[in-house]
Fold this protein.
Amino acid sequence: MSNASATSNSIPFLDLVTLHAEVEQELCDVFRQALHSGGFVGGHMVQDFEKAFATYCGVEHSAAVSSGTDALRFAIMASGIQPDDVVLTVPNTFIATTEAISQARAIPEFVDIDEQTYNMSVQALERFVEKECLQAADGRLISVRNGQPVTAVIPVHLYGQMADMDAILELAGKYGLKVIEDACQAHGAEYFSKKRNCWMKAGSMGHAAAFSFYPGKNLGACGEGGAVTTNDLGVIEIVKMLRDHGQVKKYYHDVEGYNGRMDAIQAGILHAKLPHLPAWTTQRRERAAEYNRLLEGQEGVSVPYEPTWSRAVYHLYVIRLADRTGMASRLQEAGIGTGIHYPIPLHLQKAYASLNYKRGDFPIAESVAGEVISLPMFPQLTAEEQKRVAKTIAKYLPESGNQCGTFDKHSFATADTTT
Ligand SMILES: *Cc1c(COP(=O)(O)O)cnc(C)c1O
């Protein structure tokens, strides 16, 4: 990630300088307030932010913690997931999702993604519970792969677009699985729930959810941070205990916990930035619509797909094309920053060799991983900059070989002709 501000001839992938210039005075006031009160960890600044963030997400409780990874780990542990339980997730996410599962002493297993949304495929989840699990006498699911009980599923709202939560919740309910949302990229994203007949915010639908406030996220700290959201008071009480060395009050430890609290200064900064988030989200959506317009009809490129039930917040703007690598270097030559989220699906990472997955196990996640590229996306990106990005893409496409145009948004069946 580049933190550099855009100069006249380069377009950064992410610009964290211009964004913070907009709120510099407010953030400096937070620092001064902390210096004058001497409260640096915990305290009212953290509690005030927790309240505001819970309200923003449409949930009853939130607990601020030290990172999104800790938020996930604590949410998993507080949801009652036991050591050696299987927790399902997708292969095309940041490794923090599966690290949190392992750190909670559970075992990650994967299901493939949907070709259009890049989020967890409900069909694949259904196939997993029906074909790759046995049902014990008490109705619990047992994974055939390792003989362990399957007790939770973590849909990841990837790139800022929510997974198909109604369907996932229904299936999970049928098999007694806890649903923990990885909302680390999806602050403010919304899902139209047919079941409840209303739009629901990311982090308000599962048993619990985890957010990250890493600086580059849609709501970012000036350092590290994360939060758990839930409507379950029992969950939030355990999370608050786990983040603070397992203590219920000072030096009374019910369990061994962690040092996973949020700094007061980060909480104050996040609280000051939160009221700006809706406007920044609107700007991201406008930038995404503008990219869609500029790239529309461009053969060989598919732009993000947003179902009617989704209001994505475009943490990332990700396009898909056959020659992703060539395109990335062409954009780089033109001074345009890009990213790849993510180049190697988790089941093929060296870190997970012991899980014994192999190439071909999750064909959609695998083919998507080789073809996605993330374009510059941040609220202050200008229309001029977007035009330059689109022009550079349009110029390179015909040179990138005739494999382009073999697939479109609705059919990737022939996309792999180059391999
Ligand atoms: C950023 C991120 C995390 C981890 O958050 P940190 O605050 O960096 O620990 C987890 N899952 C996803 C999908 C993320 O993008």
Remarks:
- Confidence is low (pLDDT under 50) at residues 1-6, 404-419.
- The first strand starts at residue 61 and ends at 65.
- Residues 20-275 form a domain with the Aspartate Aminotransferase; domain 2 fold (CATH 3.40.640.10).
